[in-house]
Amino acid sequence: TTAVGEVFRYIVEAPPGMDPNEVRALQDWVVRPQLRIVSGVADVVSFGGTVKEYQVQVDPAALKRYGVTIDQVSQALTANSANVGGGQVRRGDEALLVRGIGIFDSMDDIGRVIVSASAGKTVLVSDLGTVSAGFRPRSGVVAFNGNDSVVEGIVQMSKGSNAAKVVADVKLAVDAVNARLPKGVRLKTIYDRTQLIDHTVRTVGENLLVGAALVIAILIVFLGNWRAALIVATVIPLSLLFAFIMLDARGIPANLISLGAVDFGIIIDSAVVLVEALMVRLALQDYDPAGDLSPYAWRKRTLKQTVVELGHPILFAKAIIIVAFIPIYTFQRVEGKIFSPVAFTLSFAMLGAIVLSMTLVPSLLAWTVKRHPMAERHSAWMARLTASYRRLLARAQARPVAVFAASGAVLVLTLALAPLLGSEFLPKLDEGNIWLTISLPNSTALEKTQEIEHKVRAILKSYPEVGNVISHVGRPDDGTDPKGPNNMEILADLTPRSSWRFNDKDALVADISARIRRMPGVPTNFSQVIEDNVEEALSGVKGEIAVKISGPELDVLTQASEQVAAILNGIAGAADVAAVRIGGQSEIDIVIDRVRIARLGVNVADVNGAIQTALAGVAVNTYFEGGRRFDITLRLQERSRASVNDIAALQINLPGGVGTVALGDLARIEVRQGAARISREAGERNASVKANLLGRDQGSFVAEAQQKVAAKVHLPAGYQITWGGQFENQQRAVQRLQVIVPITVLLIFSLLFWAFRSVRKALLILAIVPFTLIGGIAGLAAAGLHFSVSAAVGFIAVAGISVQNGVIMVEQIVALAKGPATLVASAAEGAAQRLRPILMTALMAGLGLLPAALSHGIGSETQRPFAVVIVGGIVSATFFTLLLLPLAYPYFAERASQD
């Protein structure tokens, strides 16, 4: 499984008064096996409740009185319950299997086991202590709402499985299990990953539908022909289908961001250019009735010429955008898994659109022009807009230096203000829940942690914004989690925001945190279910920001981590700051004296075995109840292992059975403070400090924190500080972009040079690209968003669109420049003629993502920066393309000297 593998949680609801052991047994022996066989399920972890076991608890006084040791009791119990196979015996034509049956059939059988027999005197287990049905010492407790002890199941998905399908299959299995459970017992769902998936898919779906509607509306308005608009619109679903088929063939999963990044305007603009060019040609070229061609044949020939002439420019323009995505293809690790599907989805969709534009669209046009002229109709509003644009361009051409200077000044000012945006890896995805972690001092007993948990749970339940609350104290009994009894984790579902008293989730969390922190010594860490698992998987620390100090000595690491934590606490925006505790674990150390045990001939293993059996207890055999199996455990009676003196009195066997010796005579027993945890990376010890952020971006916080820590924390030689968490992902992505983006620009320049055979024209088109930053940065500022990897992907995409629009305009200017007109006049006329297709493609690309840019639904957080940058970037790119490119063309053209 992976960090996002926990997809489903449930509790076993049982009627009041039902034996807790039976509730947990139903989970372990009925529910869990049925859910584990569901396809895509890696494991089902049981947490909470009591695990039944049969307990043999012996009295040290009885052991001493009968002259036996606890090791002898252990050996007797291990040797007296088993079945064996005795092969086969032939009886006539039959072959009879031989079985030796000797397993325990009742608790009385356990008590009747002989421990020793000498001189006609036998010692039974029942003579030495008690045999009873009990439960394993609890390492964790789960509470739900007002119930202080429940049994929970956590379903973990296999790596690479589809979460929606796995959860759907698990729900079917849960329904089947519920039908088999005893009356009054049922499984109740408390966490379902598909709820988040459904919310996000619904948000993305609504944005896509509204975006598609806006794109089609733009087509109808600009083309003035509903048939032409409908033909272009057919490309949308078919190109998406092509993309999904290709993604499936490549084994690339579509995710929230890749689906939300689908921009119908970018996808269908090739079909728009083709249809618009055909309509213009049919309107400008007069049909000659005296010619050899019929009206339909003439229109069909015009269509063929249009497709042939525009095929190369359309393919080239799309190639530019796909090449612009190269930096995204190179992302690795977390950012690669998130954003690579964006590039592949858009690239496959554009490839499908190119194929459809060259095949399906001409076929539909040929069928349509047979019945309808399809010529462009006069549009008064478009004519007025074009006239206004011509006047604006004429005024700009009269003062080119002033226009260039003003445009450059706006760009420089925007870039100067850009750092104020702040930066982060990704905006937080609102999962609709709160995951609260509290770590008390390391020596805190399970019962004390439960007492604090009860109070915290009551605080959470007092908020009407909070729905169900399930809490976990300690760890599951399967040993898969290293957390101690001092740790608690609480999952709180949130109600719909329409009824909230708080403006946003951050305000709710801040209020809850303030109330909990009124309890002394209770540190908090607020996160979300998936976010918490991902953060812990990234850095091993539960926090957005992780600072790790590595080196050899634990005391130095502890002191440095506390110093770093104090510095972070003093920086604005820091929340839930804490140094992960290394020490503070109280322990009883039994230090074996090797000289003494050597004198008596006792081995270390003998001493340690007796300690483990007597104090912790060991499973010495198995008791069967039908198909269920329960451990038979052996240990001293609880009252005989409650103090250091009791431990010192434990009797250890001497070799040859000559007698026993007290543990206190073989070892030094002392209570001291030890290390609770020692973390290592690359074989080196480290201490960690974690922090979350409220109301501040990661980039500026880390920059300030690094500066202050470097100035105030001075480590000895052999120690170092590293920074990680989500910030590490951002840094890695930015560093890769710094290398790959220049290479990509060089590739785009090469394509432009190959298309125009001109360095100047290629540089002219690329020179417009930086102006996309103006709209993108302004959009992020207006939306209150930080610069993130999602926004960077948006800038990459809008750069490709900007180059495409520049190619559309320059091609027309180059064609007109071959005539007698001057370069200035050719540039102005070419720009005016390309006004409509450029506006159409820009508006479609912008409006296609406008719903995503304005969305605030669950799941919109991660795609909003991408959409906002594209919408804002297209506005500035279109404006400056229409203004600066025709203005600058005469200076970049090879015929510039003629003017």
From TrEMBL:
It holds the Pfam family ACR_tran. The chain crosses the membrane at residues 204-223, 228-247, 310-330, 342-367, 401-421, 737-756, 763-785, 791-817, 838-859, 865-889. It comes from the Bacteria. GO terms for cellular component: plasma membrane. GO terms for molecular function: monoatomic cation transmembrane transporter activity; xenobiotic transmembrane transporter activity. The keyword Cell membrane applies. It is a multi-pass membrane protein. Keywords: Cell membrane, Membrane, Transmembrane, Transmembrane helix, Transport. InterPro entries: AcrB_DN_DC_subdom, Acrflvin-R, CusA-like. It is found in: Cell membrane. The keyword Membrane applies. Belongs to the resistance-nodulation-cell division (RND) (TC 2.A.6) family. NCBIfam families: 2A0601. This is Efflux RND transporter permease subunit. It comes from Rugamonas apoptosis. The lineage of its organism: Bacteria, Pseudomonadati, Pseudomonadota, Betaproteobacteria, Burkholderiales.
